[in-house]
């Protein structure tokens, strides 16, 4: 590690002000940022911790929408998010207990790791990402690997998930990290089905429109039989080839549909 200053604001307004300092970086759960600092891949001079801001914690349900505050941990969503069973189950399977008790939804959404679970849930649910300045539709928020619509100093204060009729998330895990080699979130709404894929593409989390169309007509695993995604832009590494990941997209989609409730 190296020397840096730590600021612990108790309000969103104070956090935004602190982030106005030169070379300041927001710190939420720290599950990605702390290892990054240790490897000197990032070297901010000021860390602005969001963990002491009570207004950024907790979840609630109103008019068919679950709102989860940005500093709410994965463990809290898993424990208290029963009104959206598919989302609660996703949260319960992120990392290990240490990660779930420290990691936050806002940190995961803002980081947009190409293999993270929450971006698939947000995109698959047609969620709205709320910041200290605006509201951003998930379709506009995620813009590629580790890239989002967030501007400098902007904080994710909440994520609003419309609760679907049915939903499920299935991921094929990398066994050491429990990140998704491929993960698929499927959500059925009255006006159609959304399918979001994580872990597979060099473009990061994305929707699979052909599967959405097929499943909107017939919400059953067999509906995506014969459909495939091209392998030319899939991630290829020591864990799996591009063709393997492309194949897994179809497999995980079928499993998610079968598990949806």
Automatic annotation (TrEMBL):
It comes from the Bacteria. GO terms for molecular function: FAD binding; oxidoreductase activity. Keywords: FAD, Flavoprotein, Oxidoreductase. SUPFAM superfamilies: CO dehydrogenase flavoprotein C-terminal domain-like, FAD-binding/transporter-associated domain-like. SMART domains: CO_deh_flav_C. InterPro entries: CO_DH_flav_C, CO_DH_flav_C_dom_sf, Diverse_Substr_Oxidored, FAD-bd_PCMH, FAD-bd_PCMH-like_sf, FAD-bd_PCMH_sub1, FAD-bd_PCMH_sub2, Mopterin_DH_FAD-bd. Coiled coil: none annotated. The keyword Flavoprotein applies. Residues 1-166 form the FAD-binding PCMH-type domain. The keyword Oxidoreductase applies. Pfam families: FAD_binding_5 (PF00941). This is Carbon monoxide dehydrogenase.
